[in-house]
Amino acid sequence: MSDLQAPRPVPDGERVVRTGGDGTDGIVRCERCGASEATLNVATGMLRCNFCRFEWSTQNALQAFDLDGAIGDLSGVVVGSGTADVTADPAVTLRCTACGADVVVDTTAAVHARCHWCRNTLSLTEQVPNGAVPDMLLPFSVSKDEAVKHVAEFVRKRTFYAHPRFRAEFQPENVMGVYLPYMVVDVNAHATVTGEGEHQTRSYTVQVRDSEGKTRSERRYDADVYDVRRSFDLHVDDLTVESSAQRLDRDTARTSNNVINTILPFDVENGVLYDPRYLQGFTSERRDVDVGVLRPAVLGQVSDIARWRVDETIAFYDRGVRWDTTDVDVRGERWVSAYLPVWLYSYLQTKRDGSTLLHYVAVNGRTGETMGSVPLNVPRLALVASVVEVFGAAAAAVLWVLT
Ligand SMILES: [Zn+2]
Ligand SMILES: [Zn+2]
């Protein structure tokens, strides 16, 4: 199969859809008692008044801002205003000096915060310019108790190989709820691929005579050769990509392999209007990557999707297709920034040489999907590997005896 060409980016200018508030005091009051304090009730996914317990849900964000229209009608670049470059905000971002993570603190409520990666307490002295408020947010629907169970179960299955110190210090109740920044992207594209395919028409056996005059049977195949062309519209809905530079960092020397992507997907279509009260009791991490930086990765994924879809249409060519050209033409893109809910259990491993490696178990705050890494007990792992090798050698010896 030929290499895919990078899709051509959309040439038009951006159309910005405003998703922020109306610029007034921003206080949203309880419909029933007028109080302005409320928090997320994870069991219902609704905001609950701290005083009278009245509950209400906020509007679906994509519908409210008309950001869920037909992808086929999409042209040019449409972005939520929450995807724009970093601006000042009442919330303050602290950079954790222990692990380098950026932690958002709502300064109207607290001046300290715990880092959700390494659980250090941060104070206001380590401030960096702040990230943006997202276009939408998906509230937690998996409770802390459920998250603790998921983390405990994940680690229990790996206890045998886990580092003894990690096992001794393991406390799943230290799991923390954090809203992580993602971009949710729709793409309207047209893909055209061309190549050559073969379809077998007949198979039969012939007798052939070799140079010494002996005859033997030989299998023959007849095939028709076709020029193959596929040209189709491709609508990519709710592609979800991380928008934190640190989480995009694939360097496994600093952080254990990237597990946040493995707990996808999120039901982003149920995202609601951003409201800081959803963040009460949770932490959040600012977005620090802009649309322009993420676009090449997104368009690369669009090309991959085109390739998978075209492979579904070539069953007729039972002897295979060789693709020569692939062209993906992007007609429209839509970008929405979102906070998505993740429960995190983190563990900062200090190795013998003094270097550190961040491990974590992540639980999707909507589905409970759990993935992570635990520090390994290397001697025990090596022992198991050598036992397998001995068994392998024994099996090979038995085979040799039988033949
Ligand atoms: Zn109330
Ligand atoms: Zn930290």
UniProtKB/TrEMBL annotation:
Residues 1-20, 196-215 are annotated as: Disordered. The chain crosses the membrane at residues 381-402. Coiled coil: none annotated. Residues 96-116 form the C2H2-type domain. It comes from the Bacteria. This is TFIIB-type zinc ribbon-containing protein. The keyword S-adenosyl-L-methionine does not apply. Keywords: Membrane, Transmembrane, Transmembrane helix. Signal peptide: none annotated.
